[in-house]
Amino acid sequence: MSMSDSSPSLSSTSTSTTPPSSVPSPALSTLSLTDLKDVSEKDKQEAARLKVEANKAFLGHDFSRAVRLYSEAITHNPGDATLFCNRAYTRIKLEEHGYALQDASRAIELNPKYAKAYYRRAMCHIQILKPQQAIIDLKKVISLEPQNAQVRKELESTQKLVRKIEFEKAIEFEEEKNAVERCLEIIAEGSCEVEKNYEGPKLENIEDGKYKITIEFVRSMIQWFKDGNTLPRRYAWEIVLGAHNHFVKEDSLVEVTVNKGATIDVIGDVHGQFYDVLHLLSLTGEPSENHLLLMNGDLVDRGSWSIEVILTAFAFKWLFPKSMYINRGNHEAKEMNRTYGFEGEAKHKHGEQTYKLFAHVFTTLPLATLVSATLPPAEKQNAILSPDGFKRYFVTHGGLFSKDGITLDEIRAIKRVGRQPGTEGLMCQLLWTDPQDSPGWGPSKRGVGIAFGPDVTRRWCELNGVTAVLRSHEVRQDGYAIEHNGLCTTVFSAPNYVDQGGNKGAFIRIDAEGKQEYIQFEGQPHPNIRLWRIKLGDWRASCSRGCLWPGSPFCGPRTIFATPDIELTAAATLSEPVMQKVDVAIQTTTQPYAQAM
Questions:
Q1: Sign, CA torsion 218/220/226/229
Q2: What are residue 210's phi and psi, to 5 degrees?
Q3: 62 and 93 in contact (C-beta within 8 Å)?
Q4: In what helix (H) or strand (E) does residue 391 lie, and over which residues does it extend?
Q5: How many CB atoms lie under 10 A from the CB of residue 92?
Q6: Where along the chain is the active site annotated (predicted)?
Q7: Residue 543 pLDDT more than 90?
Q8: Which of 3, 11, 7 is nearest to 482 (CA)?
């Protein structure tokens, strides 16, 4: 299904196809405990009724409706800590960790001995990259519930995480070579050869151990992946290094022109959903001289096939460097990969050095792309045009900035190679910010970055001669959403996100006149292959994505618990009898506070 819009800047009636899932409650956020008046029995009963309805919506995965119902219940009974705690949990499901943090804190203020609220807040701190703060809250839970063994394990895991982060920071200063240099050194030493018994697709060996990529190899590799196989480590390295050689030559802001007869497809988050990516490529077509692809970040994490997705994208980049473009997303970062699974998956499939290679190459990805038409628009209709009179689009993963006046030249000059986004500054904001309906700037619902209003977008577009901002970073039920009076469009390309979103995917096609077409698609079936890892003596098992927090509120639906009598190897495909035992374990084992309401 596709829709076209010849002048997005004009679309005064265009609104988000998915309204904001939740908004802060300013009237309640400033309410102190002394302001709480006696709540009537009628209001308490209405709040209780709404809570029941919200719980049903939550269990049905209609999290946006659940938030609205909890919010309505809070207006009737603002002194009920459980309402804030429940809304916090729901906002965690919506990845609105900043808002969830506020709700959990409010629940704690109302009930300082509310263990579940401290746990919820700890989970939020993990997501906004503040594990030290999570440790404080988890210790509080233990003080309130000394016998809670599961929370104690979470505390131990978080403490290990903090130690790991500190250790990695320390050794970064000691390592003289980056991962690219080290991999090239290992290859030169002859220590990373293709296994002799490998029978899959083969790169063309041109001379002195150097390889060449062909479209035949890429197509065979995709089929190899579909058949459930992995590439040799050497081939994975060659693909990543081949793409890296092009990324390092690009500015932080890449400029792409769409010539007469050509188009470019802007693709949003795909998050390791390989089988949906294959369907997407069947709709877009392979990159070519007259058909360019631009993947706008978040290729990895969450989904079970992040390696397959990123290797496919990097293979196209190596083969077609001027037809395949890839922006960095907030998930192409160490902190996110550690939490959301790519680190574990990469190490499991190709080893630790391969993950280090990906982690470095991710820092070389451009931060934004300026897509410029080369023909005058058929209908200008007050569109903001470039100084040459053409439409052009600023494509970045997150959005705009916490102040006015940032120019394209400043973005182009950002030093990115070898650097992580962090939690502040221009790089962070490009990868993390979100649009909001109200004017000006606001706090981030995520807890990282900021939110920017339609007036901010218009001022920035007018300053830089940009027709519209195209960004991703957020689920939209229709796959895309036209916002800020047409000056900001969100595109999201992971349909039925993490197997439970129920959303469509979409991409945006732009032609030489700058005309946009929105093409939607549905999620595709994927193999029910579950690879698990388990530590001896540990009751927890998690999927091969390597999630740090198996079973926690923000973990995907593929995560399970296992009882000690279920022994799994590091790469075991679960048989039906074992799956039946696991199903029993799921029914009888409970993550702390996973039963929400």
A1: negative
A2: -90, 145
A3: no
A4: none
A5: 23
A6: 331 (proton donor/acceptor)
A7: no
A8: 11
Phi/psi at 554 (5° precision): -100, 5
Q: Is the dihedral of CA 193, 195, 201, 205 positive or negative?
A: positive
Which tokens belong to 585?
Answer: 């374990």
Query: Scanning the structure block, which residue is given the tokens 């989904």?
Result: 303
Cα separation, 125 vs 264, whole angstroms: 38
Strand segments, DSSP code E, in 76-214 are: 204-207, 210-212
Q: Estimate to the nearest angstrom the gap between the alpha carbon of 441 and the chain centroid.
A: 22
DSSP assignment, residue 538?
Answer: -
The angle that helices 131-144 and 149-174 make with each other, rounded to 10 degrees, is 160
Predicted TM-score (pTM) of this structure = 0.81
Which segment of 70-74, 273-277, 364-368, 579-583 scores lowest on mean pLDDT? 579-583
- Residues 6 or more apart whose CB falls under 8 angstroms from that of 101 comprise 88, 121, 124, 125, 128, 447
Nearest 5°: the CA angle 383, 385, 386 is 170
Question: Are the C-beta atoms of 157 and 586 separated by less than 8 Å?
Answer: no
* E strands, 397-462, in order: 434-435, 441-443, 450-452
What's the per-residue H, E or C state across 196-249? CCCCCCCCEEEECCEEECCHHHHHHHHHHHHCCCCCCHHHHHHHHHHHHHHHCC
DSSP state of 38: P
First-to-final CA distance of the chain: 39
Rounded Cα distance, 221 and 213, in Å? 11
Nearest alpha carbon to residue 280 among 453, 492, 429: 492
Give the residue from 497, 498, 515 showing the smallest Cα distance to 506: 497
**Is the Cα torsion angle 175, 179, 180, 184 positive or negative in sign?**
positive
- Would strands 434-435 and 392-396 be described as parallel, antiparallel, or unpaired? unpaired
Helix or strand or coil: residue 508? Answer: strand
Number of H helices, E strands in the chain: 20, 21
Closest Cα partner for 8 from 497, 450, 433, 371? 371
User: Residue 45 CB: number of other CB atoms within 10 A?
Assistant: 12
Among candidates 168, 173, 239, which has minimal Cα distance to 203?
A: 239
Phi-psi region of 327 (alpha: psi -120 to 50; beta: other; left: phi over 0): beta
Whole-angstrom distance, CA of residue 468 vs CA of residue 462:
10
Strand order in the sheet with 540-543: 560-561, 540-543, 531-534, 572-573
Rounded Cα–Cα distance for residues 546 and 555 (Å): 11
Query: Any bridge partners for residue 520, and if so which?
Result: 506
- Comparing 88-97, 357-366, 526-535, the range with the smallest average pLDDT is 526-535
> Tokens standing for 365?
């990805």
- C-alpha span between 589 and 562 (Å, rounded): 8
% the chain with pLDDT above 90: 71
Edge-to-edge strands, sheet with 516-521: 2-5, 516-521, 505-511, 263-267, 291-296, 324-327
- CB burial of 306-320 (b: ≥16 within 10 Å; e: otherwise) equals bbbbbbbbbbbbbbb
Q: Which residues are catalytic?
A: 331
Question: What is the rounded distance in angstroms from the CA atom of residue 426 to the CA atom of residue 421?
Answer: 9
Nearest 5°: the CA angle 513, 517, 519 is: 155
Least reliable range by pLDDT among 63-77, 299-313, 526-540? 526-540
Q: What span, in angstroms and rounded, lies between the C-alpha atoms of 464 and 410?
A: 11
